[in-house]
Each structure stands twice: as C-alpha cells, then as structure tokens.
Amino acid sequence: xxxIRSIYSRMLNKKRGGFFQNSFIKAxxxxxxxxxxxxxxxxxxxxxxxxxGVCVYDQYDTFLTQLLECFDNEVNGNEVNGNVSVExxxxxxxxxxxxxxxxxxxxxxxDVICVNLVDRTAPTTIIDLARKNNVxxxxxxxxxxxxxxxxWSKLYYVGADAYESGRLQGELAADVCKRNRIIxxxxxxxxxxYVVLEGEAGHQDSIIRTEYSVNTMIDMGIEVEKIGYxxxxxxxxxxxxxxxxxxxxxxxxxxxxxxxxDDMALGAVDAYESAGVPKTERPAVFGIDGxxxxxxxxxxxxxxxxxxxxxEGQAEAMYKLAIAxxxxDDxxxxxxxxxxxxxxxxxxxxxxxxxxYLEKK
Length: 361
Ligand code: BGC
Fold this sequence. Notes:
Layout: H1 2-16, H2 23-38, E1 50-56, H3 62-77, E2 84-90, H4 95-107, E3 112-115, H5 124-133, E4 137-140, H6 146-149, E5 155-160, H7 162-179, H8 181-184, E6 192-198, H9 204-219, E7 224-231, H10 236-250, E8 256-259, H11 262-274, E9 284-286, H12 292-299, E10 305-308, H13 311-326, E11 341-344, E12 347-350, H14 354-359
Parallel strand pairs: 1-2, 1-3, 3-4, 4-5, 5-11, 6-7, 6-8, 8-9
Antiparallel strand pairs: 10-12
The structure holds beta-D-glucopyranose.
C-alpha cells in the first residue's frame, strides 16, 4: 500500500515539473480524459486502490477519537476490494478550515470523503465542492438538516438517533431513582432535584438529549425539579469547572446529574472528587456514549449508568458505505433509510451489564 502511495505521489510531483514533455504521461492523461468526454465513468477494478478522506471537527473529542479507532480497525481488518488508504484531517472547530481540507482531499483524488461537520448547519460549501467534482460524501456524527442531505444524490449520513439516546437516559435514570428512592432522594421531599450538563449549543444531540431525558423521567412517574444547568461543550474539564459552580450554588441539594455525554459526566465526578465529597453523599450521575473511561466509571460506581453510542457499528457502516460508493456499488444494499441514512441503535449500560461492554474492547 505504501508503495502505491509513493508511486502516486511521484506522479503528482511530476505533474508540477515537465509534465507535458512526457509522452507516457500524455497517453495516461488521454485515457483519463476520454471517459469524461464520452460521459462514461469507469467501474473501479477490484485491484484499484481506494482512497478515503476523513475530515473531523476537532482532534480532542473522546468519543470521536474512539470512533475513528474503530474505523481504522475496519480498514485494517478488511483488505477487501484491493488496497484501501485513509487520510484523517482535523479542523480545530473551524468550518472554513474544514471547507479547505475537503477541497484539498478532492484535489488529492479521494474516492469518497467522510465528513464530521464543524457546523452542522453550514454544509453548503462542502456539498457544492463534492457535487462539482463528483465525490460522494458520507457525513457522520454531526447531523446536517434533511434538506441539505437532499441537495445531491451522493450525500449520506451515518450516526444514531438523538431522540433514542435521550429517551434511554431518561429510562435509565428513572429506573435507578425508583430502585434507590431513599438513597437518591436525599432530602426526602419526594422530588428529584437535578442539574443538566449540556453539550455544544446547536448540536442535535445536546438539544434533543436534554429534552427527552427529562421528559421520559417524568413520563415514568418521577417527579423532578431542575435546579441548575450549564453548557460544557462535551468537554470534561469545562464540565468540572461548571459543576464546581453548581455545587457551590446548590450544596448537597443536587440528587441527579444528567450529562449529555460521558466526558461531561466524568467532569461532574471530578468536581465532587476535588470538593472532597464522599462517594456515598454524591448525586447519581448519568452519561451517554460508553467511552472506555465512561464504562470504567460505571463499573466502579462513580457513574450510575450510560447509554452506549455504538461506535463499532457506526464505524462499520461508514466503512462499508464508503467502499460501496468508491466501487460504484448500490449503497442501498446496506439497508439505508430513505436511501440516505444509517442510524445505529443505542443501548442502556448500568452496573448489571457493563462487563459485557468492557469485554467488547
Ligand atoms: C457524542 C459526544 C461527542 C459529540 C461530537 C456526540 O454524539 O455523544 O461525546 O462529543 O457527538 O459531535
């Protein structure tokens, strides 16, 4: 594979030098241009190299880092259809940077690009570039609005159902509260006083998870009282700082912490740790994702539970879809919803089944 890559980069270097003097390259160019003129795109030969570009909104996101590890496992474990090479780039939370990165990926001849948008409401530049150059895009994790996905036939989305994650977190929290009423309702007022740690404003998973988690608890008969909330942008350190402020304001009134992801749930645990609150006096903390650290925290009891965000399933779907698109195969064989969406189900993880998930590793 490395050899193919170096041949390819030598060809690129030639392109910059005395390109038109070389008659071999001229013939090659003719062969490449002919199908475009005649309008027929050649089927990929099974032994062709497939080049996949992966553009990620930020390099410091725990869940995405683990999702990409799974993606890498797919690439390395499935040497089907010839050589597959992957290139990853990170946009440091800047949409303009990501637009440039996608353009560079197209110039480098990627067959398909997987995009984790920085701003899920601003995909237009990327869609225009993709359509102009006929490069399919698999968006993942940060879901663009339906109308944007319909802008061109070769746009897809792989992720999960945000509503389901909120509902399951609510079910989990309600179940734990019912089974441990006396311990969790510390002040014995019959209400569960809770705080919420929210992900990035504008992210589909923040808005929806919070709303559905709380409403499900209420639907399941838990009487709740919201006593605080903070946005911590999916980030453990930010969550620790925000949680420390919430503890200062509310003291031991907080009975439940609903965090939109595991990293923020762990930030809450960190805040209680630094405040020196003994484990038995802390609120019940719930996360979402089932990251390695999140699962360990469920196993050791510092988190009461999480909702597993199936990174293995998402990585597999992204990989299979990317390969199908690169090979001009029909992606519908992968069971896409509306020919566009692949959403993997979430599952509840608590102390009773956490070992099954830890074993997945
Ligand atoms: C995950 C978060 C992650 C975010 C990034 C969410 O689905 O639950 O942990 O930070 O995606 O977009």
